[in-house]
Every structure is written in structure tokens, then in C-alpha cells.
Amino acid sequence: MSWRARLAAALVTLPLLTVVPTAHAASPIDMTSGFYVNPNSSPAVWARNNPGDARAARVQSSIGSKPIARWFGNESGIGGLVASYVGAADANDKLPVLVAYNIPGRDACGGHSGGGAGSVSAYRTWISSFAAGVGTKPAVVVIEPDSLGDFSCMSSAAIQDRLGMLTYATQMFQQKAPNAYVYLDGGNAGWVAPATMASRLLSAGVRNVRGFSVNVSNYYTTGASTGYGNQVVSSLGYAAKFVVDTSRNGNGSNGVWCNPAGRKLGVTAQVGGGAEMLLWIKTPGNSDGLCGIAPTTPAGQFDPAIAIRLIDGT
């Protein structure tokens, strides 16, 4: 049954005078029948294009065939790209996971994934178009990984600009994407103290959206991440929801964030598991930067050698 049919059936049972809120007319989880598998994720495309490589079948089976978030950066026509992606998921009655990753001064501390929109006004236009592209379709959206953890590498003026942009982003999704669960990024268990992160989330408009994400592109165990998330919730002072990136946390963290050795795939996307959802947000096999076990592979580029090491936990 499609989400439209589910929603119509639910509305039939409502009293005649009931007003359905514009924010979250229905849960996107209930509106769909599982998570969307992107046939054009970087590991799936690599496996498809390299059938003669002995690693291809393992990469496709263990990674390419799994639900993984689709990251969107400073591409032109962002509204249409997003609409096309959520439309493809909707046509299959599946729930897509998207990442908005285009904040000016992106990755201020790490540096490997620098870039983003060229100005505050350019970002506002971009994120507004992104939210409009999601529209009324069911989706999960993570807003700007690392954006609230990078403050130690930013000026006071840049921090204020960033908080304003993030607040605007939450407002756009609140207004334009009523059937999306949207999460501001809340860093990871080894970065910013929970009370400090809670304060930053509040300043960035977290109350306008579903909650926050934890461990995006990092390696902390699910237990450590849910513990951290619950501490942030306690400091927020209300029952915000959070999701955890489990894509590469099967062996936990060794304290290194950039292409460390010995890491492993975590559990695949699911509802629950100690958080609202456990998700593969970072694409396993995509490099963190020119570092660690992949010193010549740029950030965001798929490397089959990284993928196989994550599969084997080596």
C-alpha cells in the first residue's frame, strides 16, 4: 500500500472536526515499507562498472545493496535533483535518507571536505530549494554534518552566521517538507560535551525539526553513541529524537577519525536499536580524506580497498 493510501485510510478514522497538523501529517516511517536502496550509490556504481574485479561481488553484496544516505552538495538545480531522488524512492514505496552538506566554511576543523555555498544568501537559496524538492513526500534528512562541532575552528562572526543559516534551514523544512523527519547534526561521542552540544542545537533551531543525528562519518559504537545522544536529550530539556550513523562502527573507534585501519561495517538501517533509527549515513568505502589507510584517495571518493577492509574488519 502506498503512503497516500495509508494516509487516506488514517484520515477516514479521524473525527470530522479533527485538524491534522501541517507538521508531520504522518510518520514517514509509517508512510513507507522500508528504507530506500540507492541503485546509484558509489559502491553500487563501482561494483556495476567493475564486474571483472574479484572484489565487486562482495562490495555489492555487503554495501551496494544496502540502504545508504544520498549526500547533496553544491550541485546546480538542487531542487530538481532532490525531487527526482525522493520521487524514485516514493515510486518504490521506500523511505529515502538524504544529507544536506553545503554550509559555507564546511569541515572547518577537519579540512578534508572543505567547500560549501559561497555566501549566506547562496546557502539560504540552496537549502530552501532542497526543502522544496522534498515537498510532501516521506523522507529522512540530516542537516549539515559537523556544522555544530566545528566551532573551535571558527570566528565568532562565522559561528553566528552558521547558527542563522541552520535555523533558517530548519524553518524551511518545517514549512516545505511536512512529511520528512529532519535532524540537525549533533557531532559524536568523542567531540563536544553533551550540554554544550545541546546549547548549540537549541541555538540552531532544533525545536523546529525532529531532533539530531549522532556519529555521522565517525566510528563510535552504537552503545557509546546512544549514550551520548541520551545525554544531549537530557540537556535539551525536552524529548527530542535522534538517529545514529552505524555505517562504520562495527569495531568502534580507535580515536582516529580519518580513514583509520581496523574498522568494520555496523548494523544496517533499522527503526529503533536504542535511537529513533540506526542508519548508514556515511557511505562505507568513501574516503574521509587524504589520510590513514587511503592517503591518495580524496574525501568523498569511493575506494574499493577501504570497502573491503570495512567488510573484513581489518
UniProtKB/TrEMBL annotation:
What Enzyme Commission number(s) apply to this enzyme?
3.2.1.-
Keyword set includes Hydrolase:
yes
- Enumerate the Gene3D superfamilies for this protein: 1, 4-beta cellobiohydrolase
InterPro entries the UniProt entry points to? Beta_cellobiohydrolase, Beta_cellobiohydrolase_sf, Glyco_hydro_6_CS
Q: Where does substrate bind?
A: 71, 191, 218, 257, 282
Keywords of this protein's UniProt record, alphabetized?
Carbohydrate metabolism, Cellulose degradation, Disulfide bond, Glycosidase, Hydrolase, Polysaccharide degradation, Signal
Q: Where are the active-site residues found?
A: 146 (proton donor), 288 (proton acceptor)
Q: What class of enzyme is it?
A: hydrolase
Per its record, what are the GO molecular function terms? hydrolase activity, hydrolyzing O-glycosyl compounds
UniProt keyword Hydrolase, yes or no:
yes
Q: Which residues form the signal peptide?
A: 1-25
GO biological process entries:
cellulose catabolic process
Q: Name one Pfam family in it.
A: Glyco_hydro_6
| Family to which the UniProt record says this protein belongs | Belongs to the glycosyl hydrolase family 6.
Specify the protein name. Glucanase
In which organism is this protein found?
A: Umezawaea tangerina
